[in-house]
Write a structure and sequence with these properties.
This protein has three helices and no strands. The two termini are 22 Å apart. Helix 1 (2-10) runs parallel beside helix 3. The mean pLDDT is 90. It is 34% helix and 0% strand.
């Protein structure tokens, strides 16, 4: 999965902030799945806007709980 994401991030035509019907971005989904590797890959990309809120008005960073970074 990480190899796929890394290749995917190499494409400049990809909208990394595209949200689903609940306004969750790929960063929100990575946080919700507690996937530290993908979170870090996304945050290193200049195209990521970490200030997008989802339908519940949460930033991705607000969804991180202590289990994610133990």
């Amino acid at each position: 999965v990480i190899k796929f994401i890394t290749k995917f991030l190499e494409r400049e035509d990809v909208d990394l902030n595209k949200a689903d019907n609940r306004k969750n971005t790929p960063l929100h989904h990575a946080v919700l799945k507690h996937n530290k590797e993908i979170i870090n890959l996304l945050l290193l990309d200049h195209r990521i806007n970490s200030l997008f809120t989802n339908i519940d008005k949460y930033l991705a960073s607000q969804l991180i709980d202590e289990k994610c970074y133990e």
